[in-house]
Queue: 4 jobs
Job 1
Amino acid sequence: MSTATPFLTAISSILPTPLSESLAGFQTPETAPVLDILIRFLSGGDSPDPDAQQEWSERQHEAMAALGALTKSTPSNGKRRREQEPDSGSDPKRQKTDSDVSPEDDPPLFTLHAISTTSPVRKKVDIVVASSSITFLNASTRVVESSVPLSALNRAFLLPTRGKMKAHWTVVVLSSDTPDRGKKPADQSASPQVIFGLDAAASASVKYTTYAEGAPELHTMKAGTPTRDLLLDFIGRLRLPVLEPVAAVFKSACVGIGASAAVGGVPGIEAYRAAKAGTLWFLDDGVLWGESKPCEFWALEDLLSKDAGLRVVSATGRTCTVVLTRKSPPEDIAELDEGEADPGVEAAFSLIDGKEQDGIGKWVRERRNLFGKAKIPGAGALQVQDDSDEEDGDFEADSESDGGSASSSSSDDDSEDGESGSEEAEDSGGDDDMDEDGEDEELKPENHPLMRPGAMPRMSRAAIDMVAAMVEDDLVGDGEDDGEDELED
């Protein structure tokens, strides 16, 4: 019977004695196979009949959801279950996901079933939004894979995923604009991120559960149904505003491959950070690097200044590099010498198509006056309009360098142009007259032609670090699996 009923045999020997004895009384040649199939079904196993696997899986998820709701609502008489008691020999992941909040104090509000997530765990899970937490349950075993308090979450984004053959949405929820420094396991991250995606039109039945007055109600979206409203509802349960890039704010000049869920154009550009591919999303409030983990967000007020906050560097015009500079953290600023300016924290994004420079320049001109300034509700639109009229020429002049010299979106040349203008007034033509007459005059080092703005390519430290990282990756290889940064359908 052990070979014909493997699930029943495995469980019979480890059940509590009274239950094991009662179960033995039911075991007959007719009932044993039925009990074995029931245990197989409830434990997340596959259907013994391959032809019935689709219906089996659908019913299995419904059963898991119903049992999960019953488990959460069952009184525990004030005692924690034994398997949740932490001890020195237990799994670190289980210790991480244990919560001091009882189910009665943190009732579920919304559940998305069988979702493939990229972060905080890379598994197919049920995502349960409760009153004070978001929990990730293994879709098959119901084991808690991870849990994040809602109070830790800071920003939520709904992104039209790039590079998918079918239109697709990606949800990114950040607990901090900057990710943890260094590589840490997801369950040990001090700044957890939630990343998952869904097809824009459901390719298969999508199931979710709501809890009206505590009673679970399972809903099924038919294949082909748009999923955007469902994802917006999910984010709303997190009590966070939705930040969504739109073509009215920024539109990529490159079509790219695959389909897009965005309307009117793709509001992001393909780029590389070191050797990792991803997308820079330009929003009204800042710039997001995603969907490749770890994601990072640069709010306008966190950029270093209007001159150095965002620069575009291009040596050939065919490709360009975007350099974002964030204000240094307070602990780094405290270590600066008196009077020393904040150097900022640079991040370089390379191998961007040169066609994107005009769109980036327009986005910068409309918002550069807000770089580094505390956000004032209701004042942003007026400041943007005033600034865009004054400095349109600055960014264009920097981005379009003559010949093959490097170009930058910073407006450092503004002051330099003013200084050179004064010198020309004093010298009655200065350099131009000297060149035309061919007079041999002593040339000061600061006036050397190679010291003029734009004469020599400028390369930021972040760009140098990026090139070094790419070379190092080619020589020694990357220990991290690049496949982990692609969302599963």
Job 2
Amino acid sequence: MAILGLDPDSDPIGGLLSLQGELERFMRNPAFGTGLSGYGVFPPINVFDSSEGAVVVAEIPGLDASRIEVAGEGRTLTISGEREFAPDASGRGYHRRELNEGKFSRSIQLPEDYDVSRAEARYEAGLLVVRVPTAERAKPRQITVQRA
């Protein structure tokens, strides 16, 4: 029985939620591929402002820093790399497999207030921290008033 006269088959929000559920089930399927976390996004990131600019923190455990690439172009910051396990891992019969391997790439758009070309990255204890300074043109400055 429809509440408020809405037909459940014609509810666009219900249809989208159903589609989202189907896509999530598809993405969790081990046959789909590697390089995806349980949430469908890898690496998970936090982005926040600091007094010097933006800070991007990515959780990428189990990698050597040389296996991670950070690139900036325009307002886009891209974090990519590849996570591999022991060569003999492919022949194992898993009871449960949640650790993903393979290539990953994650791009984020930053506001124009930040200078991606001057970003610095540091990787320690499974966390990649990228500091993106505020662009010079976005910093407040005092303007001197000159006499005419």
Job 3
Amino acid sequence: MKHKFFILGISIFLIASVIFPLQVAAQQKNFIDQPFLETTASVDTLVVPDRIYLNILISEADTKGRISVEELENRMAAKLKSLGIDLDTQLSLGDLGSDFKKYFLRKTDIQKEKAFKLLLYDGLTVGKVLQGLETIGISNISLDKTEYSQMGALKLKLKVRAIVQARKQASELVEAIGQNLGKAIHVQDFEPNFITLRGVSPLRAKADESFEPLDVEFNKIKVEGRLNVKFAID
């Protein structure tokens, strides 16, 4: 009796094993054989960056050792505060870390430097910071990167517009041959869909405090939503 149950169990398993692949193959065949139209659509836009990261390097070498790094740091903090900068949220230590990086020029001569990263939100404030720091002897400033804070929401909006455009294109093509467009059966999203500016060129401003700070213009960020969609043809 046990042998009969065992043989019966093997038979059921084999039957199920055969039927299941056939069902999967049939489903795949139905999808492949189903008439469809494939189209790609893209929508893009340009946005002004609203998160601007600057690298600031303060060094005793810039003042030929006359002003210490500690004093330069205090002057920088005071100047940034006077410009409305929130030091707690916008200023952080840069790549050199919390410890001073020391250069041994001679056995008895040590000069120090310290790096910071500053987050700003518009070009006018960047101009004010460049000018203000220049007046206190800090001019080693470079652009790290620019970002757009609402990138996620914007990318989703562009993808929605792209898929609407894809359906419009597909509908016009199918109607031209006297057929009807069905539902979307496959959607592919292409990445990356934005290009952001990166730069390391030094930024300069005049040291004269009477000079009107410029509204620094940064390259706009190109954002793109691009989709490939397959629509069934009814």
Job 4
Amino acid sequence: MKKIIFICFSLLLALTGGCSMNDNDKNSTNDNKTEAIKPKDMDPKDLPQVPAFQDEKTREYMVSTKEEEPGYYLLESKLKGFRMLFPEDGEYSDSETSKTNESLFFDSINNKTNIVMNASLKFYQNESFINNPETMLDIVSGKNEYKGKFEKIEAKDKDIYFASKQENFDNQESPSYIYLGYIKSKKQDYLGMEYSFMFSCSANVQTCKQNPKGYEKKVKKILNSVTFNLEEREDGK
């Protein structure tokens, strides 16, 4: 009799345990499905109520709705060549994409300070000239009419060449602050990115309070967050 009771009890445990495992498997599957949904495929009402997600073009670049750092989310380029922190108030402006290169332009407006940021990034892969800092810095300097030197910031996986300049445009009472340079991958040859960030007063206001140190800190945060995703090519073609 005791043996029969023991067998029945064992069968009951097996059945309930199996159900529990099935439920866990279902939950795990559902979680994976949830994680796989990209912001671009979600209802805007369910996304963070910030320009980076509420703008249709911008959210195509956003990896997830997880806030990586206060005010920043993760962006991935169309070629999946790089990822970086993207400001929550950032918004797509324009882009150009080929098989090996990609340009991305975006803007942001801080309504509290009336400061506008205009940013441009150009990503290169399998281009031999990106390995030559002298050539790249000549290119960047020419595009930005810059004649000064660059600071070299060495990170574990990349070298960041950084410079800044102040520009006084005829139609602006306050100066604009520009941060420019390029990033070269240390882990992969023929891989890098040129960049420029410009901060200026909004055209809708006559004056605004400038904060160059804050601008530089913001730009360096974004640059240091850049990670390159592509595999190394040896020929540079």
